[in-house]
Amino acid sequence: MRRVLSVASECVPFVKTGGLADVAGALPAALAAQGVEMHTLLPGYPQVLKQVEGEKVFAFDDLYGGPARVFFAQTSMGGLYVLDAPHLYDRNGTIYLTPEGHDWDDNPERYAALCRAGAEICRGATDWRPDIAHGHDWQAGLLPYFLKRDGTPVPSVMTIHNIAFAGQADADRMVALGLEPEDFTEDGFEFWGRISTLKAGLTTCDRITTVSPRYARELTTPAFGMGFDGLMTARRGDLVGILNGIDTDQWNPATDPAIRRFKTHRGKGPAKKALQKAFGLPPSDGPLAVVVSRLTAQKGLDVLLDVIPGYLHQGGQLALLGSGDKGLEHAWREAGALHENLGVQIGYDEGLSHRMMAGADAVLVPSRFEPCGLTQLYGLRYGALPVVARVGGLADTVIDANDAALKAGVPTGIVHAPDDAEALYLALMRMLELHAQPQTWSRMVRNAMAHPVGWDVSAGQYAALYEGLLAA
User: Fold this and answer.
1) Any residues with CB less than 8 A from the CB of 124 and at least 6 apart, and which?
2) pLDDT tens-digit series, residues 293-324
3) What mean pLDDT is reported for the chain?
4) At what angle do helices 421-435 and 438-450 cross, to 10 degrees?
5) Residues 44, 82: contact at Cβ < 8 Å?
6) CATH topology for 2-245+455-471?
7) Domain boundaries in the chain?
8) How many angstroms separate the CA atoms of 39 and 121, rounded?
9) 0.85 cut: is pTM over it?
10) Which helix or strand (DSSP H or E) is residue 115 part of?
11) Measured between alpha carbons, how far is 432 from 200 in angstroms, rounded to an integer?
C-alpha cells in the first residue's frame, strides 16, 4: 500500500472556510479504495484541538517563534497529524484573518511551520514514513521546497485549488521563513519582487495538479494564470487537471438528516416550500434559484446583482446565503429589502446550505473564474439545475441545455459566457422558459441527479499519478 502525506490548511470535518477543506477531507477515504493510505497534517487551530486528541510523536523546541509538538490520532476521516503550536494558531478571528478581517501578519510563518512539520514527517520523524508528499495551495507551498533543499528523497505533488492566492511576503522575510536567498530568482520563489510560497512549491514539486481539466488549460493563459501563466506553460508536461468530487454519503438527498429527504425529483416539492418559508418568500409557481457562495468579485455576484431585478420581475425567486466583501454584503442586503421574491442571509450555515440545495429548482454560479467548484456538484446531486459560467470546472461538469443537447435528452443545466451581464440575464431567461416546460425540466432534473459527482474516477487518477511519479 502506498503512503501519502497530505498537507492542508483546512480539512472537514475539523475546520472549513471553502472547498479546499471538502477535498482534503474526502481524499483519504476515496484513495483508500485505490490502495493508498493517506494521512493528513493540519494546523492545531483551537477548533481542531477541541475535536481531536492524540499521542505526541515529535516536538520542536523553537518553531518560528515558540515550542510546538506534533501529535497523531486516528479519526473518522483517517490518520491525522496535528501541529500544536499555540503561538501560531491559538487566536481569535478566523484561521486566516484577524477579528477585523485582515490577514494575520505572520501568515507566512504560520504556514511555513506547517510545511516544516510536514518535511520532518517525510524525513522519518515518525514510524509512519510517506512515499509521497501532497501539498495543497500556497499554505503548503514550502513543503516541496524544504524537501528538495534538504535532499529528502520523497517526491512531491502540489495541487492548485485557486491560483489567485499566491502566498506572498516581503523579500526581507526570507531568512525568517527559512528560505535560501540564492533561490530568490525568477526560476525560484521570486514573484514580482516578493516571495511567493505558492511559486516555491510550483518550481520545486515533481508534479502539479489542479482541480479540473479546463482550469489546467486556463492556467497557461494570461487571462487566468494570475502571473503564473509562463511557469504553468513551462511545466505543462507535469501539469494535470483532475476533477474534484463530493462526498456522496454526506450529500445524499435520500439520507441527508438536514433536509426533507427524497429519492427522486418528485420529492423536492416539500423541501421547496420549506425553503421559501425559511427565507420569507411567498408561494410561487416560478423557479426558485439559490446562491450559496463567498461574496467576492471572483464569484460574479456583482454581475448577478445587476440582472436579478429582471429575473424577479419575470416570476423567478432567489435565496442567497453567503458572506465576504462588505460592499457586496451591504448591496445584497439592500436588494433583499427591496424585492419580495429575494431572500438574503449573510453568513454561512452548513445545514441551511443542504436545505437550499434540496429546495432549489436551480443553483446559480456566475463566476468570473472557477478552478472546479463544488456548489454545482451539490446542485446536480440534489436536482437543483446549475446555471453556471463557462469557465474551469463549471464547464467540465455541466451539460448546457442547447438545442443539440435537448434533442439528445442529455442536458443537466445552463452554461453562459462569464463576466457578461447580458449573457447571464439571457441564461436566467432560458431557465425561466425551460421551467415553464414541465416535461423538459423534469428530464433535466433526472439527468442532473443521475450525473456522476463522486470521487471514484478522480481517486483512480490520483492513484495513477502517484504510481507514475514513483516509477519515474
Assistant:
1) none
2) 999 999 999 999 999 999 999 999 999 999 99
3) 96
4) 110
5) yes
6) Rossmann fold (3.40.50)
7) 2-245+455-471, 265-450
8) 11
9) yes
10) helix 107-122
11) 47
Q: 342-372 burial by CB neighbour count: b if 16+ within 10 A, else e?
A: bbbbbebeeebbbbbbbbbbbbbbbbbbbbb
C-alpha cell at 380: 446536480
Q: Which CATH number fits domain 265-450: 3.40.50.300, 3.30.420.10, 3.40.1010.10, 3.40.50.2000?
A: 3.40.50.2000
Q: Which three cell numbers stand for residue 18?
A: 471553502
- Three-state secondary-structure class, residue 244: coil
Return the beta strands (E) in 401-461 as ranges: 414-416
Q: Contact at 8 Å (CB) between 222 and 233?
A: no
Q: What is the tens place of the pLDDT at every residue in 58-75?
A: 999 999 999 999 999 999
Q: How far is CA 79 from CA 4, 27, 178, 279, in A?
A: 11, 12, 28, 40
Residue pair 291/283 in contact (Cβ under 8 Å)? The answer is no
Cell of 376: 454545482
Taking only the tens place, the pLDDT of each residue in 118-138 is 999 999 999 999 999 999 999
**Distances, alpha carbon 241 to alpha carbons 35, 216, 393, in Å:** 21, 5, 10
Closest by CA to 463, choosing from 31, 52, 11, 3, is: 31
Confidence of residue 18 (pLDDT cuts 50, 70, 90): confident
C-alpha angle 338-341-343 in degrees, rounded to nearest 5 = 80
What's the grid cell of residue 191? 514573484
Are 205 and 157 in contact by the 8 Å Cβ rule? The answer is yes
Interatomic CA distance for residues 355 and 339, integer angstroms:
22
How far, in whole angstroms, is CA 165 from its chain's centroid? 13
Helix ranges, 288-415 (H): 301-313, 326-338, 350-359, 375-382, 392-397, 403-408
Residue 438: is the preceding peptide bond cis (ω within 30°)? Answer: no
Place of cell 526570507: 174
Residues 460-470: tens digit of each pLDDT: 999 999 999 99
